[in-house]
Amino acid sequence: MVMVMVMVESGGASWMNEAAGGGADGGVGGGGGDTVFTSTNNLPILAELEGELVSHLEDFLTNTQHRLDIISRYVSEYKEELGGRFQDTDTENGKEKFETNEPRLRGNFSEQQNIINSKEDDDEEEKKFGAGVKGDKEWSVTERSFHPVSSFLLLRRLAVDWSDVEKTLQVLLSSTRGVVREVGGAITRSGVKLPVPSDLHVSALALVRLQYTYDLDLTSLKNGTILTPARGQLLHEEIHDGGQLRCQDCLYLSKVAMSEGHLPQASDWLRIAQEATHHEPNSAAVRKDILTYQNVVHKLRNTEEELKRQAAEETIRHTHQSQENQEKEENDNENEELKESNQNATLTQKDHEEEVEVEVNEAEDHERYLRLCRGEQLMSSSEVSQLVCRLARPSPSHHLLAPLLVEEVSHRPHIVLIHHFLTRNQTRRLAAAATPKLEESRHRGPEGGFVISSVRTSKTAWLRDNTLEAENNTDDDRDRGLNETGDAMGRFLRQLTRRIEAATRLHALLPSAAEDYQVASYGVGGMYKAHSDYLMTSTDQTLYTEWERHIGDRLATFLIYLSEVGGGGATVFPRAGVGVWPQQGTAVLWWNLDAAGRGDPNTWHAACPVIYGTKWICNKWVHYNDQFLRHSCGLHPTDKITFP
Ligand SMILES: O=C(O)CCC(=O)C(=O)O
Ligand SMILES: [Fe+2]
């Protein structure tokens, strides 16, 4: 897939123009500042708020409609009085404009005036008084005012009706101020920021991502129905009515898909947009826009095809060349190799295995990621048949009466599920403690500092459990809400860590042994791109802080699902061929490092985008160096760790 950033002029609404550019400050995927969309937490609040706003507007309309009627009646009467020849609107430039100030002179009257006055005077007169109708001739407003009935009506309107109009305007003004105040108050009380175009961009990215990842049927999606791939079934009976996307929405989504480099999806959205224009009035401008984009997408798709073809040719050339070189080298070294072969047979085989293990094929990883997210089974049945589910007692003192229900989901690397590790109440408690601290997820940027993540679209919070920090809590800690270690929550977290220690037979309570709890909440479309949890991949140790070198890398990941997910949101391991579907209270445990502390590339994993609802998880990363008393290095440094 080729990433293409395209800016194309759009004739549509102003929010449309931000689609292809990556969102004003939202950025692609992650959003800048505190985006509304990365966590679904805000969405129900916004939905409630919108309901409240509409009800304020309804009240406003009810209160003001009859007042607008008074004004409307006044204007109509005035126009009627002028004999129905009053030209009231001018649609030139698409703008409606009342002409009460500048009615035009027409017919004989203007000719007579021409005889008497100069052209300039005439123009002046024309501006001041305008014209009326006299028989089949036009009268000036002045002339008309000399008519007794007309003058009576004029005075009636201005002496009586106008004061009504003025009062009405005053009432309207105060009602308008009132509704503005109420609306503002409702927004403030809701505690959320209103979304801005960059939020819309992030939401569109989510929709495009969902459609791409799960290969969702576009026509259904346009009608608010999510059909799952392959099986073509509804995701959920009860959530099939998400509302209708309009042609302009589909065009916007096409632009976003294009900006993400998903060209086939961009074409599909354009097709749907075009179909929609047939059923929507006033869609001529959008139709024109669609045509422009169709050309752009078409050209980009051709370019992409050409690049792919060239890359394929290059790969074939490269493969031939390496084969020739290898054959030549093999011939040269044949004799020497024969000599050494007996001696090193075992070692060579082992090294070869290691090499194969770390060979990375990004395209294949991605393909397997998509298939796993879509619920496909990638393990062979013989591999699956070797996985077991059992009751385990890793620490007999803890698990004698309550053994852990352990289900193996992969042997290479060793990944297990520990079912019912937390109760529903405990998961809710963790999520509730994290909620006020949630912040846009960050990751280490190219300049070393932490940046808002486009790799992970979620919100995260840290919960501290270790006692050492509790004693040393600083004012700054307290300001940041990190002082709960001494209270009930702190006790609960420490107990939880002890249970993790018992399950993993690792140290996890000291700050040097494990990180604080990281709680993450993913909203609709929220995901975490494929990554490994171990971080210290460079041999250049100076890249790491003293503390990082002291505690070592992340040996184990203990991930607890704090919620179920309405649709999507699996944790997938493309190289292991495993997908884990969140179950509230279940923990996933895997070993990121081998016995010697080297990262295991087969732990490469991702969080698939959430299709419906919210996903909550809680991570505990246990580090390597503190485990030296608990955890043997094994007989061979590349031994994999496989308990409980
Ligand atoms: O959310 C998930 O399923 C995976 C999260 C993850 O990989 C992480 O937090 O490092
Ligand atoms: Fe991870």
UniProtKB/TrEMBL annotation:
Keywords on record: Dioxygenase, Endoplasmic reticulum, Glycoprotein, Iron, Metal-binding, Oxidoreductase, Vitamin C
For bias kind Basic and acidic residues, which ranges apply? 306-317
The cross-references to Pfam families, in alphabetical order and at most eight, read:
2OG-FeII_Oxy_3 (PF13640), P4Ha_N (PF08336)
Q: Which residue intervals make up region (Disordered)? A: 306-362
Q: Which GO terms describe its cellular component?
A: endoplasmic reticulum lumen
GO terms for molecular function, please? iron ion binding; L-ascorbic acid binding; procollagen-proline 4-dioxygenase activity
Fe2OG dioxygenase domain location, by residue?
Answer: 513-624
Quote the subcellular location field of this record: Endoplasmic reticulum lumen
Q: What does this protein do?
A: Catalyzes the post-translational formation of 4-hydroxyproline in -Xaa-Pro-Gly- sequences in collagens and other proteins.
Q: What is the enzyme's class at the highest EC level?
A: oxidoreductase
For the keyword Membrane, the answer is no
- Give the UniProt family note: Belongs to the P4HA family.
Which species is the source of this protein? Answer: Petrolisthes manimaculis
What name does UniProt use for this protein?
Answer: procollagen-proline 4-dioxygenase
EC number of this enzyme? 1.14.11.2
- Please give the cofactor(s) recorded in the UniProt entry for this protein: L-ascorbate
Q: What is its main location?
A: endoplasmic reticulum
Instruction: Give start-end positions of Acidic residues composition bias.
Output: 327-337
